[in-house]
Design a protein that fits this description.
heterodimer, A: alpha/beta, Rossmann fold, Dimethylsulfoxide Reductase, domain 2, seven-stranded mixed β-sheet, 29 helices, 29% helix, B: mainly alpha
Chain lengths: 954, 78
């Protein structure tokens, strides 16, 4: 059932027509009311827009019209019969009647047939009061049925409760196909079908398997589409229907889906995706829709705690004591060792307002630029690379833009697992005929799924991205596929000339780079021609691009390719980073990096710095501060001694854990603010309880620069929202922060940040969301950037020489380990591991190719010891040809189950983003994991400074 | 901080600018370090360049020229 209070228009807007500007309009009369709607609109939708809801059951406005239930029949003057209003388009001058005695008879007859095969137990049904069949029966005054209840029926139908989040009760199913169509049209998984004919027709998952064992990915779209209680959230069964709803934004990935949080008293009953949500248009994934239980999990740490030494036990204290202690310690360190001896880390899981306040606290109250954010370890190369080439550290498009793309490149990203709602949009476009090029070492889902397949899969060796992007560009240049007029008008001539000469060199050809990349030259040439020749070519990328020693170079290479082919500055094209966490874009926008203020302006710029100094009333430093890895190094040499960490678990998420924990242990005051007592908290002197996304107000900014409201639906369980805690700390430090609401923080952000100048909470509430830049030139935001001209003026090409990573394979470490995500878990798993999502993924496994497994005597399910140059771990083997020979792969969601394989010290040259994606390893079968692990830890070959590290992506 | 680590980072930066900036690579590297490295990191590698050249034996030629430039031009404020 759709969201509480949602008014369903029955059918979607006409495809393709609404995009015409102005749209071709049609005027008709419905029940005597004149209605004007876009051409192609259904009569049902036109009637609904005129506040006339035609009875229906099989129609809903997220799905194409189906014409099955025959409840929506209408009469049209001058036409014979009783056409279905859902499948009949409007026509100029048409006169429609939606109510008549004959129509009532026809509808009542249909309803009597439905009711004759439906349990009449509405009062005890969990869908009571929110069931479309019940609504229609009431509306048509159906209290009994002429067909009686004695005939054959489905009342004893099976109930499938295998899925942890929803159940399927066949006895309540009216076989309207809405669930099947939702799975096909919206989600694109095609897991459901109608099996059988006539009376035997029934909804089944896959080959009549329980939902849990089927291909179902638990996005819940079928549950939302169901008009009865047949498919229903178990939480609704347990707690009953909700009483109210609050619109907010998901706290998982960078898609930033809008949701209705439905509550009964203070309990969240369920979350339903907002059909008016600009990022998700009513779709969701298993994490966003269902995995919210961590917010009320028993593991939540709800009391402030302090301890003088990290070896001491924690001591519960009041908020006042915890804040005062923190402030005293930071002040002591400043006075003893100088202001640059302390710093802070902002979180991509927190709101814009919270990250803005933490960086303000560090710069203004701490008096240093030692502030950084977890984007350091994921998309920092995106910020640098796009800023240099096209002038802005952000993606260029709205997600909707993909529906205008003709050729789509997905490189170093796995959207079906990491950004599932966007993946569904991509698949919708592919089913409409767009072409797909996947550049990835693994056979990710988009390479081949039901009803879609990539036209090219460039299955490169990990670490050779730049060689591949250069080879693609070489073909474009060598074969005359460049858009010269575009380049002449919009790009720096000198930079293009230099880049063109470089890229045209034979050493960059697909044939020359084949031995480096492992990708057949013919495939590279075909892919380059496809992308460059398409009317609209769009590139989407993820951490498989950025988390390399040449991450920034690859981002630049992508921008080069897009500029050379004229694929920037309009809908359907562009360069779009897919951000891992919910507010990676926002945390970067808010000035979390040590070298720049909000809006990506360098701290050395006196005019910008002066503006902040005036507003904040303090002198600010003009030199860049320490990045996160620099903080650790400085801690170990004694020049960095205090750290405030909000919403980030660096001890688990950053590479070379031993190095990180040694640094943390060397500090004198570590203040951790988080939902849970995480790994970093083991090295903390103060613990400040955090608040979940359900407990706070604020905004997130998603991958498409879309600012969306986060709205508090329940009181903070520990008493304060995160931004309030930062204010308390700042006040205790003697730098007053007197905000009454996050809207006031946003007002300050807008006053200091040109790209946010026009953003207010009032406007966000009015428009739903805003894509920055939002200012006088674009008062309602900017869906597509770089239209007409690049933000930096002329686009700049950069020479992108391929430089091999220093992490080489060898006879001792012959395999390359690379990493990624899985659908049901999120990041380091702190949230999703505390939900029923563990039913799908309870441990990380090592994917290994059958050839590599066979020569090592490894069978599927065996324990495998993995050793790199700096550490070792044990995982279970998943023998699969999703990986190529020579490459092994794992996810990183379960540190305690052994995913903490050591990565190298390598990092991106420009930003120090760690090279998580390439680690040379060996894998051997292990009979006794614990013993093997213990032996490895005492192995004389293991470096003393780095026994273990972690793999993680933000 | 670990000078070897700083040297490796400079070499990585230099490898990019050697291709992008050609003969201007040392200046480009020095500019990058000024804009993105915290003063104590710059001070440390400059000091090593001046007082303990052997600790920079793995520094690339472009990187060495960049540190020389940085030392001439840079006066990081604390």
């Amino acid at each position: 059932m759709y969201a509480k209070g949602y008014r369903d228009l029955g059918t979607p807007p006409p495809v393709g027509r609404v995009l015409l500007d102005p749209p071709s309009l049609v005027t008709l009369e419905i029940d005597g009311t004149t209605v004007t709607v876009p051409e192609g609109t259904s009569i049902m939708r036109a009637a609904a827009l005129a506040s006339c809801d035609v009875p229906k059951l099989c129609a809903t406005d997220s799905l194409k019209s189906f014409g099955s239930c025959r409840l929506c029949l209408v009469e049209i003057e001058g036409r014979r019969g009783y056409p279905a209003s859902c499948t009949t388009p409007v026509a100029d001058g048409m006169k429609v009647h939606t109510e008549s005695r004959k129509l009532a008879d026809l509808r009542r007859n249909v309803m009597e047939l439905y009711v004759s095969d439906h349990p009449l137990e509405c009062v005890t049904c969990p869908a009571n009061g929110h069931c479309e069949l019940q609504d229609m029966a009431e509306r048509l005054d159906i209290t009994t049925t002429r067909y009686g209840f004695g005939g054959a029926n489905h009342h004893g139908g099976e109930r499938d409760a295998s899925n942890p989040y929803f159940q399927f009760d066949q006895s309540l199913c009216i076989v309207c196909s809405r669930c099947v169509r939702a799975c096909d049209e919206v989600q694109g998984t095609f897991a459901l079908t109608i099996q059988g004919r006539g009376f035997a027709s029934q909804v089944v998952a896959s080959e009549h398997q329980p939902f849990l064992q089927s291909e179902c990915v638990s996005c819940g779209q079928c549950v939302e589409a169901c008009p009865t209680g047949a498919l229903l959230e178990k939480s609704v069964v347990r707690h009953g229907p909700a009483e109210r709803a609050v619109t907010t934004t998901c706290a998982y990935c960078g898609v930033g889906c809008s949701f209705e949080v439905e509550l009964k008293d203070e309990r969240v009953v369920r979350m339903t995706p907002d059909r008016n949500g600009h990022a998700n248009h009513g779709h969701a994934c298993v994490k966003g829709r269902f995995a919210f239980g961590y917010a009320t999990h028993a593991d939540r740490a709800l009391k402030p705690m302090i301890r003088r030494k990290i070896t001491d036990p924690w001591q519960d204290v009041t908020w006042e004591e915890a804040i005062d202690y923190s402030a005293r310690e930071f002040r002591r360190l400043q006075e003893t060792h100088g202001p640059d001896s302390i710093g802070g880390i902002t979180s991509s899981r927190c709101t814009n307002e919270e990250t803005f306040l933490v960086q303000k606290l560090v710069r203004a109250a701490f008096g240093t630029n030692n502030v950084d954010t977890c984007a350091r370890v994921c998309h920092s190369p995106t910020g640098y690379g796009l800023k240099q080439t096209i002038g802005e550290s952000a993606g260029t498009q709205a997600f909707d833009s993909v529906m205008q793309a003709d050729a789509i490149i997905v490189v170093g990203a796995n959207p079906t697992e990491g950004h599932p709602v966007f993946a569904s949009r991509v698949k919708q476009r592919l089913r409409q005929g767009a072409k797909l090029i996947v550049i990835d070492p693994r056979t990710i889902g988009l390479v081949r799924e039901p009803h879609i397949a990539a036209d090219y899969h460039l299955q490169l060796r990990p670490g050779t991205n730049v060689a591949v992007i250069n080879a693609l560009a070489h073909v474009v240049v060598a074969e005359g596929l460049t858009r010269d007029a575009y380049i002449d008008g919009r790009c720096e001539a000198d930079s293009y000339r230099k880049w063109k000469a470089f890229i045209a060199e034979p050493r960059n050809s697909p044939e020359a780079t084949e031995s480096i990349t492992g990708v057949p030259a013919a495939l590279v040439r075909g892919a380059a021609r496809l992308y460059a020749s398409a009317p609209n070519g769009a590139i989407y990328y993820g951490l498989g691009v950025t988390e390399h020693s040449q991450g920034t170079t690859m981002v630049m290479g992508i921008a080069n390719l897009a500029m050379a082919t004229g694929n920037l500055g309009r809908e359907g094209v562009g360069v779009s980073p897919l951000r891992g966490q919910n507010n990676v874009q926002g945390s970067c926008d808010m000035g979390s990096f040590p070298h720049e203020f909000s809006g990506y302006r360098h701290v050395s710029d006196p005019a910008v710095r002066g503006m902040f100094e005036t507003k904040w009333g303090v002198a600010l430093k003009s030199e860049p501060g320490l990045r996160i890895p620099n903080m650790f190094d400085a801690a170990l040499d004694g020049s960095f001694r205090g750290l405030y960490v909000q919403g980030e678990d660096i001890a688990q998420s950053d590479p070379n854990t031993h190095h990180v924990t040694s640094a943390l242990a060397a500090m004198e005051c570590v203040v951790v603010q988080d939902l849970f007592l995480n790994e970093t908290a083991k090295y903390a002197h103060v613990f400040l309880p955090g608040s979940s996304f359900l407990e706070k107000d604020g905004t997130y900014t998603n991958s498409e620069r879309r600012i969306s409201r986060v709205r508090k639906v329940m009181e903070p369980r520990a008493g304060f929202q995160d931004w309030e805690v930062t204010c308390l700390l700042s006040n205790a430090l003697g730098y007053p922060m007197r905000y009454r609401h996050p809207s006031e923080i946003m007002d300050e952000i807008a006053s200091l940040t040109p790209t946010f100048a026009g953003v207010t909470y009032e406007k966000l509430d009015r428009l739903g969301s805003i894509q920055w830049p939002c200012n006088d030139q674009a008062p309602e935001g900017t869906p597509t950037m770089h239209v007409g001209t690049f933000v930096r003026g002329k686009g700049k090409f950069f020479v992108t020489e391929y430089v091999p990573t220093t992490e080489h394979t060898s006879s001792e470490y012959p395999l390359v380990l690379t990493t990624g995500r899985i659908l049901t878990q999120y990041n380091v798993g702190a949230q999703t591991r505390r939900t029923d999502n563990v039913i799908w993924h309870s441990e990380d496994v090592l994917e290994i190719h059958p050839h590599d497994a066979e020569v090592r005597g490894i069978a599927d399910g065996d324990w495998v010891g993995i050793t790199s140059r700096v550490g070792s771990t044990v995982l279970r083997a998943d023998v699969t040809d999703r990986v190529q020979p020579g490459v092994v792969y794992t996810t990183f969601h379960f540190p305690e189950s052994g995913a903490n394989v050591v990565t190298t010290e390598n990092s991106d040259w420009a930003t120090n983003c760690p090279e998580y994606k390439v680690t040379a390893v060996e894998a051997i079968r292990v009979a006794h994991p614990a013993e093997w692990r213990a032996r490895q830890e005492t192995d004389v070959h293991a470096p003393a400074h780095a026994p273990h590290g972690h793999i993680v992506n933000a | 901080m670990n000078v070897e680590r700083l040297v490796a980072m400079v070499n990585d930066i230099a490898a990019f600018f050697a291709g992008e900036a050609g003969p201007d690579a040392p200046a480009a590297v020095a500019n990058h370090l000024r804009r993105f490295w915290e003063p104590r990191m710059r001070r440390q590698i400059i000091e090593a360049y001046r007082t303990d050249p052997s600790s920079l034996r793995n520094l690339s030629d472009t990187g060495r020229a960049a540190i020389s430039l940085l030392g001439d031009q840079d006066s990081p404020r604390v």
